[in-house]
Amino acid sequence: MDKTIIISNRLPVQLQIDNGSITAIPSVGGLATGMKSVHSGGDSLWIGWSGLTDEEIPDGLAPEIDKALAKHGSSKVNLTSEEVDGFYYGFSNRTIWPLFHYFLEYSEFELQSWETYKAVNQKFADAILKVAGQNDTIWVHDYQLMLVPQMVREKRPNISIGFFLHIPFPSYEIFRTMPWRKEVLMGLLGSDLIGFHTYDYERHFLSSVRRLLGLEVSFNDIYLEDRVIKVDSFPMGIDYKKFSEAAKKHDENKTGERSELQRRLDMHKESDPEAKFFLSIDRLDYSKGIAKRLNAFEYFLTKYPQYKEKVRLIVLAVPSRSNVPQYQLLKKEIDELVGRINGEFSTVSWTPIWYFYRSMPFENLIDLYTSSDIAWLTPIRDGMNLVAKEYIATRTDKTGVLILSEMAGSANEMNEALLINPNNFEEIADTLYEAINMPVEEQKARNAILQKRLERYNVEKWANDFMTSLKNQKLIDHSYKSRKLSNDILGDIKKEYKKAKKRLMFLDYDGTLAGFHGDPQKANPDEALYGLLDRMSALENTDVYLISGRDKDTFTKWFLPKKYNMIVEHGVWISENGEDFRMLENVKKDWMEKIHPVLESFVDRTPGSFIEEKNYSLAWHYRKTDPDFGQKRATELNTVLTSLIANDDLSILNGNKVIEIKSSNVNKGRAAMRVFSQQEYDFVFAIGDDWTDEFMFQELPESAITVKVGRQKTQASYYIDSIKNVRGLLEHFIE
Ligand code: ADP
Ligand code: G6P
């Protein structure tokens, strides 16, 4: 049976060895807790690190460990303590984690840990390759394994690979500071589908791909050689049922069945029914903003002293990555802060902060969620934050208030919570006040909406959506109408070419015969191209046409003395055998007065863009603009133009970094057909790279050999990977 292979640094359980016996404890953190429910089906295998280094595993115990993991559908990758230092404590958590959470000053760029990161990623990739069948699906998780997709792709070019990043992807300005930024991007691009929690992370990633690798990105598709990689956002949900049912069961528990923790919480509630519990739960991580939260609590007690002895903050901090110096410092800072605030405000009967530094069993987590009036989560940056969702899921009577940082990915889906900026103490203090005083009806109304949403978009739906999208991506990739122009196909085409009595060939210029240049006038033909075209024009029984959107003056200058056949301005003008250009279509120009000022306003507001005035069309070029900004403006211009030209017989052509407006009755397809219908041609060939060439591909007869340069969707029958291959292909017809 085909299986799904989940691969992440953490397995769903962590192993511990006490006196030679092995115990498995559940892993903490969003990835492990979320994926656990996805993994429970029978046809998946989870590969990861056991949490123990090779040195920590006593001789002879390895088979027992494998058995213990197999019970959880898991298998381990072995890591030495040196590897764990460089890969986990090093590059993953001292470089990537701080950088991706915008803690630039904490990021260390050390060559040695990068080397270990690469070597360990290769170990994970090898572990996959050892067990993966051709039809299996690989799902790689998170920032510790960003090179794995490419490493697997190299060995299994056709296997299906998905990647999901559980942390934020930072803006290009941050990401570009990393010395190995290109390697990391290329590693990820081994995938077929790359998922993020939010659209913002997706957008940042695409921007880095465009700017750092210069790859073609169209909407959320990335074109890399002969592959298309899809990027999308899938906000991760929780196992809603597990939390809501645990909470229901908790409500029904008789007094005698309650946990020690619950009994203590109840005692405090009973002693003062008006008192409120604030809950703060996170891994002990600087990105979670725990220290700021404590300071903000102090500020709240000072600003609203009436709540002294009335509120209590329960802080649950789970130990995490304690070998990393920043985490050790943070632990110290929080210990001191809790001590100081408690020292400052405590009374005989009241301790403002209860602080737990440990992992808690699931039942106790439910005790805390269900007993707290307010969940107060203020990460400075957080990929998602599942605790926020878990709190809402446990509120069986729909009461309770969630105060959540805007900087958490989950804030995007939880608008009904009270959203705050974690750096704004004034706002936080006022929001706590608002939360304490929020009428029960309002609490219920807000939570009802949140619960409905979380129940629907739960973790299972999240995983299914991702997997469906991954499957579809593979299908789309194979269902391209056009096929790669292989040597075999080319051999067949050459046979037809030789057999034919009269041949017709259309060659697009920019992006096909010549590369792009910021200044279109500088993309002039080189000597080798003249040589090639001379030889092609001299072919017997073969009519070769350059077909271009270029203006007639430029082509007159470049090609008229050579007597090449030419169609320019998308089909307005034609010149054959060195004769002057004559009009192929009668077109109007009066619309230009109306459109020109619109384009000018876009030039003013988009540095680097410019207008090209042709005889019968206007083009707005944005190749030299900032890629993201240019794209944004292009979308805007498209909208403006569409409404402006609604009643005119004009069309908008979206070319390669250019938007062109021209009469609707002019296009390359129509022009090519006019030439085609003049004689009895029995071999027709057309090659081009952008939208404007699609008209040719569509309109020429089915038997024509149509070739697209690049991998974008096309009506052409074949494609070749890049402009580098065009001239070599044309040489085949001259041999
Ligand atoms: P992160 O992934 O950064 O740790 P999330 O909020 O997304 O943050 O996920 C934390 C996960 O860990 C949640 O599923 C939560 O239930 C679990 N968790 C948090 N605190 C504890 C704890 N003390 N003991 C056990 N699990 C915990
Ligand atoms: C976050 C990361 C996970 C990680 C978890 C716990 O959720 O996205 O990849 O597993 O934190 O961190 P740890 O370092 O203990 O695995």
Automatic annotation (TrEMBL):
GO terms for biological process: trehalose biosynthetic process. InterPro entries: Glyco_trans_20, HAD-like_sf, HAD-SF_hydro_IIB, HAD_sf, Trehalose_PPase. One of its GO terms (cellular component) is cytosol. CDD domains: GT20_TPS, HAD_TPP. SUPFAM superfamilies: HAD-like (SSF56784), UDP-Glycosyltransferase/glycogen phosphorylase (SSF53756). One of its GO terms (molecular function) is trehalose-phosphatase activity. It holds the Pfam family Trehalose_PPase. PANTHER family: BCDNA.GH08860, TREHALOSE-6-PHOSPHATE SYNTHASE. Belongs to the glycosyltransferase 20 family. This is Trehalose 6-phosphate synthase/phosphatase. It comes from Arenibacter troitsensis.
